[in-house]
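User: Need the bound-state model for adenosine-5'-monophosphate-propyl ester:
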Amino acid sequence: MGQKYQQFYRRSIEDRDAFWTEQAALIDWNKPFDQVLEYSNPPFARWFVGGQTNLCHNAIDRHLDARGGQPALIYISTETGAEKTYSYDELHEEVVRCAAVLRGLGVGKGDVVLIYMPMIPEAIFAMLASVRLGAVHSVVFGGFAPASLALRIDDAKPKVMITSDAGMRAGRVIAYKHLVDEAMRLSQSPPEKVVIVNRGLDSNMAITEGRDLDYATLARQHAGEDVPVTWLESSDPSYVMYTSGTTGKPKGVQRDTGGYAVALAASMKHIYCGNAGDTMFTTSDIGWVVGHSYIVYAPLICGLTTIVYEGVPIRPDPGIWWKIVQDYKVKVMFSSPTGVRVLKKQDPEYMSKYDMSSLKHIFLAGEPLDEPTHTWLTEALGKPVIDHYWQTETGWPILTSVPGVEETPIKFGSPSFPAYGYDLKLLRESDASEADADEKGVVAIIPPLPPGCMTTLWGDDERFVNTYFSTFTSKLVYSTFDWGIRDRDGYYFILGRTDDVINVAGHRLGTREIEEAVQAHPNIAEVAVVGVDDQLKGQMPLAFAVVKDASRIATAELKAAEEKAVMAKVDAQLGAIARPRRVYFVSTLPKTRSGKMLRRSIQALAEGRDPGDLTSLEDPGALEQIQQAVKG
Ligand code: PRX
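Assistant: Bound-state model below.
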């Protein structure tokens, strides 16, 4: 840590109230807060108590005088060829209209609006309109299958759902509305109204009279209506975002309003070095936390221009990202290691032919950034490539370089240092004591969590405490469920998860969720899913399954067909992102004598590593089968 940053960091921990009061001045408050932090009921923290604010006001209204004509949102779709720029004035008009539509459907403070949409401007209008009304949005990633969507509907209990007829990916139409219909059928508590932004991509879209409403028609009906901002108390919720954990049931990460706005504004200044008028290009999707924080809220709160890109990195050709950087003079870019690995395999010409002089930094997160990819991109771009580490739960970086405070040297393979505000420790698993330099420990945060982090799990305070704060009995600490190590220079390295969560192309998946999906196939008696190294995607799931009726896999052809059928089941339950690379059939799975599945040993064998201590193994033959299966 450089000296300047060290001082900045120390102050954020030791003089917390003064530090965050200064950061809070980066946003607008309708009424100032009375107290910086209320922490009488650990680990529940409330930031900027008594203050009144609103995310939509901060993202749009407050900029109208100074930058109403400046581009706020640039939409580029290489799927449909659409390209459209919205100024802050125009964004305001669209969002107010969308808010009027939602209000007309009875949406008000505290109601949930579920958004299941492709990367189109209307998805962002819906998010901003929802928070304008004081409602709580829950955006579900469009790659999730109907059963997953239904699970989220049942937990969030939305009043209204907004979707689109279809999205497009790599030239293929994905019928969103069709998937929604299926999810509504599976749901125990479906919303009464479904609003559809019809892009004219799916001529077969079915309409349920009385339930399904056309957005354009409603927008015309509500044109010209004024929808003032609903002021919220700082800790009122702004959104819920579901994420995977170790159980089959996803967790609804709940975010507040004031703390989140302050955290994002501060991060834009100190970490991303983005100022009003600059352009930011984040290649994520609004269905993920990176999209929430760095496509939508942070850039707009800070008066930047944000790019909303619908498309893949290699179409029409692998230069498309860099062309966008050149054409729109992108200054801040945020992407993922998998995206960069995809481009690394292409002709370097695609990168070198564009003028990237506007670009200051590129930030990568979501999964481990391997050293070769980090080195390659740094050399190819000639710009600092900043690996930073965070989680859906935190909403903004936990470990990062903080170039807005001090440009510190980058070490390849390391996301640098703890971000200000995080009292981060590496703890020994055995007794929660602090690990030494070069010693592996659990990445933990001493609560209170800083502003912007999750405040609880939606409707389940108990699960929030039990899941995140119960790793150690001797200390109340937040566990990230990641292993980390710090070198002698104070640089941190992330070594992988402590739990059964895997990371496929930056998408976080629970192996338990995938196991449940595999088990939905009627011929599967038992299954173990593990994540194994993958050159491109970081990790991929592999499934080892025991069948009920072996005659159905008696020949190579039957086996292949059964494997396909199991994969199809996963596609239908979770979505193609969770599909195992292979499903291997075995007659028994390795377990301890007490019946605990030896997932770590299976994973080690599948990656060709030593399976570790096997003295507790019940049936040694089970491991041999795993070995044979992956070899064969
Ligand atoms: O295991 C860590 C990994 O991704 C997890 C969080 O995933 P998600 O909730 O989807 O949030 C992504 C927000 C950027 C972490 O627990 N992870 C994230 N960033 C990194 C990482 N692993 C290594 N290096 C990173 N930079």
